[in-house]
Design goal:
The structure is a single chain. This protein has 104 residues and is mainly alpha-helical. It has a domain at 76-104. The chain is 81% helix and 0% strand. It has helices at residues 2-57, 60-69, 83-89, 93-103. 0% of the residues are buried.
């Protein structure tokens, strides 16, 4: 009977240590998950800010004066070339023009 009591006591102590370590590991994983969620939320917030900045910076009324101050102008009609003429001037340019048109 005494051996059974000692075995039960050892089992109880081992169970207590196991449960304590399991509880500690669970809290550690929970803290790690929360930090990952905070990082993901921060990244989403940063993406939203960057999209807003891109929208603000790519406004035509902002870009046009900057481009003109550097001497850039909109293309004139005589500067545009049809794909057939481009193919005659530059070999394999028709395929390049087609690839560019398909990607847009």
């Amino acid at each position: 009977m005494r051996l059974l009591n000692i075995a039960a006591f050892c089992f109880a102590v081992a169970s207590a240590f196991l449960l304590y370590s399991l509880n500690y590991e669970t809290r550690r994983l929970e803290a790690h998950i929360q930090s990952q969620e905070r990082a993901a939320q921060q990244a989403k917030s940063d993406i939203a800010v960057l999209k807003a900045e891109r929208g603000h910076l790519s406004r035509p009324e902002r870009i046009d004066p900057l481009a003109r101050s550097q001497g850039l102008m909109p293309p004139r009609a005589d500067q545009l070339v049809s794909p057939d003429l481009a193919a005659a001037i530059v070999p394999d340019s028709k395929a390049s023009v087609r690839r560019v048109a398909e990607s847009e």
